UniProtKB/TrEMBL annotation:
Transmembrane segments: none annotated. Residues 327-590 form the Protein kinase domain. Its EC number is 2.7.12.1. It is found in: Cytoplasm. This is Dual serine/threonine and tyrosine protein kinase. It comes from the Eukaryota. Pfam families: PK_Tyr_Ser-Thr. GO terms for biological process: cellular response to fibroblast growth factor stimulus; negative regulation of apoptotic process; positive regulation of ERK1 and ERK2 cascade; positive regulation of fibroblast growth factor receptor signaling pathway; response to stress. Keywords: ATP-binding, Cytoplasm, Kinase, Nucleotide-binding, Serine/threonine-protein kinase, Transferase, Tyrosine-protein kinase. InterPro entries: Dual_SerThr-Tyr_Kinase, Kinase-like_dom_sf, Prot_kinase_dom, Protein_kinase_ATP_BS, Ser-Thr/Tyr_kinase_cat_dom, Ser/Thr_kinase_AS. GO terms for molecular function: ATP binding; protein serine/threonine kinase activity; protein serine/threonine/tyrosine kinase activity; protein tyrosine kinase activity.
Length: 602
């Protein structure tokens, strides 16, 4: 009873520990994904913001250059339409009670007071005129707001918020300074926007380009001749009417249009220059941030994630050992560089279903291989069940192996019938080979849909079941793109040229499939002639770098050969997407296996 209770407590502890390890590992990998996305997206966002702002600036500048006549007509029409309304507003304005009093007998007034009151009437009339003209100008270019501003502002905001989030936990004053610096680009963009269509209706505001028109007019109005000090010649109503009429008559629609366009262009250029300066600062900030964090995320990918993955492997193995015990190894099925594969009648969660298992026994010689094995185990466990991927059942660590000096990791997986290398040696029929090629593409597509790159597609990593349907195995080199640190991995003949540079993506699997498809179509496992001449692995790599590819055999038809050539294209962006590869393989399969082309026994 005590043993049972203690074992149950140990199991619960192992489960909790395993959950913690897996959660930490998932968080680390998601952080790596976020970092990789920032590295790719940030330069694109900066370039997009620069391009869109430049387009907006040119469109607004063209508007100012080409629309002067339209603006003149708009001003002229507005002045005619509002003339009576402006005169009434001037008459109704109660200025005399504020400034000075005029008696009905037209007694003498001070010239300074008269000038001051005249300016107030002029300001009132001009403010109302400015408001109407500004509203009509705004309506004439609102389409530019819809075309440029939405995505541009959101993109710029995301760049500024990214840096603000980075400095959130720093000193408050320093964070405010950083925030102020990174917000300058948005403020400069707002100035461009403000110059274009966010016209301030307050005539005293310096943010309005219509105010620039008023300033010019204000200087002109100061030169108007006013009555000399002495007798006031008319009633207050007549005087206010005359001031408004004189003002409206003195305005020139041509001159106003030139002033508006000139001021608009000046403000637009100033805002554009300020925006470019601010964007350069923002770009410098992000470049520094990415460089600063690059070492941290390199350590995350190469050290922290593998260590946590190893802990997760150990806790999972402990849990499986408590639940299911040590798997019973049967006959040897195969042997590799670091491990041996054994048969196993049944084990673990699939024991009740009577599913046959295979046990891959691996003895990692050092910490690096331990970490690689742990990562293989993690990615194999995280992949959802799929008919084209060999499923992993569980794992156990045998600490008694080699007298306890070198523990062996036993990876228990579903058992297959044979690998593709063996099947080709045993003369697998052509229709079945085509079906296998389609299965392999389905498996690679599924891995890519999970964000994983296999990086070692080859004959021995494709296993066949009793019905000769294929599944992909050995995820030892499989990684998410975000976790790939540029290491050179894979089997030389299947390795894409860019793998040797350390800069590659998921298209390396498309290249590897092209080589695999050559073997499938050839129906044998002999090396292509060009590679068979290479004396060693280094020569083989040099041939691949120079563009050497397998030769065309007489048994290849045009459709199969063209597909191979497309898949192993030198430039990654010239290789077809796996969806297109799948469609072309289906067409080849239908044409060869449904009577349109007679099977030649390839």
């Amino acid at each position: 009873f005590v043993r049972s209770v203690l074992q149950n407590q140990l199991l619960q502890s192992a489960k909790i520990l395993n959950e913690c390890h897996n959660q930490m590992l998932s968080n680390f990998i998601l952080s790596a994904f976020d970092w990789a996305r920032q590295v790719q997206v940030t330069p694109l966002r900066l370039e997009y913001v620069k391009q869109k702002e430049y387009e907006l600036f040119n469109r607004l500048l063209a508007f100012a250059n080409k629309k002067q006549e339209e603006i003149r007509l708009l001003i002229s029409q507005t002045m005619v339409e509002m003339r009576e309304e402006l005169i009434r507003a001037a008459v109704d304005y109660d200025i005399f009670r504020k400034s000075f009093s005029i008696q009905e007998d037209n007694s003498s007034v001070d010239q300074y007071q008269l000038r001051h009151s005249t300016e107030e009437i002029q300001n009132l009339v001009l403010a109302l005129l400015n408001k109407t003209i500004a509203e009509k100008l705004t309506c004439s270019i609102l389409s530019l707001r819809e075309t440029y501003l939405g995505t541009l502002q959101r993109c710029l905001s995301s760049l500024e918020k990214a840096h603000q989030h980075e400095t959130h936990d720093t000193d408050q004053l320093a964070a405010q300074d950083h925030y102020s610096d990174t917000q300058r680009a948005s403020e400069s963009l707002k100035q461009i926007v403000n110059a274009a269509y966010q016209v301030q209706l307050n005539v005293k505001s310096s943010a309005s380009f219509v105010h620039s028109m008023w300033e010019r007019l204000h200087q002109f109005l100061r030169s108007l001749t006013l009555p000399k000090a002495g007798t006031f010649p008319m009633t207050p109503t007549e005087w206010k009417t005359q001031v408004a009429v004189d003002l409206l008559d003195s305005l020139s629609d041509n001159r106003l249009a030139r002033v508006i366009c000139s001021q608009f262009r000046d403000r637009l250029r100033q805002a554009h220059v300020a925006f470019l300066d601010s964007l350069r600062e923002l770009e410098s900030v992000h470049t520094g941030r990415l460089e600063k964090n690059e070492e941290l995320f390199l350590r995350l990918r190469k050290i922290l994630v593998p260590r946590v993955a190893r802990l997760a492997l150990e806790s999972t193995s402990l849990k499986d050992m408590i639940l299911y015990g040590m798997p019973q190894l049967g006959r040897e099925l195969g042997r590799g560089q670091y491990g041996v594969v054994y048969s196993c009648d049944s084990w673990g969660p699939v024991a009740e279903k009577g599913v046959r298992c295979a046990v891959k026994s691996v003895v990692p010689p050092d910490d690096k291989h331990w970490n690689d094995l742990a990562m293989e185990f993690h990615y194999s466990r995280m992949v959802p069940p799929n008919d084209r991927i060999v499923s992993l059942v569980g794992s156990v660590i045998d600490h008694s192996y080699g007298g306890g000096a070198s523990p062996a990791v036993l990876l228990v997986m579903e058992r297959m019938n044979r690998d593709l290398h063996t099947a080709l040696k045993m003369s697998l029929t052509w229709p079945k080979r085509l079906r296998v090629s389609i299965d392999v593409v389905e498996g690679i597509r599924f891995l890519h849909s999970q964000g994983l790159v296999h990086r070692d597609i080859k004959l021995k990593n494709v296993l066949l079941d009793q019905e000769d349907r294929a599944k992909i195995t050995d995820l030892g080199f499989c990684k998410p793109e975000a976790m790939m640190s540029g290491s050179i991995v894979g089997t030389p003949i299947h390795m894409a040229p860019e793998l040797f540079t350390g800069q590659y993506d998921s298209s390396v699997d498309v290249y590897a499939f092209g080589i695999l498809f050559w073997y499938i179509c050839a129906g044998h496992t002999k090396l292509p002639y060009a590679f068979e001449q290479c004396q060693n692995k280094d020569q083989l790599w040099q041939c691949v770098r120079r563009g050497t590819r397998p030769e065309r055999l007489p048994c290849f038809d045009d459709a199969c050969w063209t597909l191979m050539e497309d898949c192993w294209a030198k430039e990654p962006n010239q290789r077809p997407l796996l969806g297109f590869v799948y469609s072309r393989l289906e067409a080849i399969f239908l044409s060869h296996c449904h009577g349109r082309i007679v099977d030649t026994g390839m």
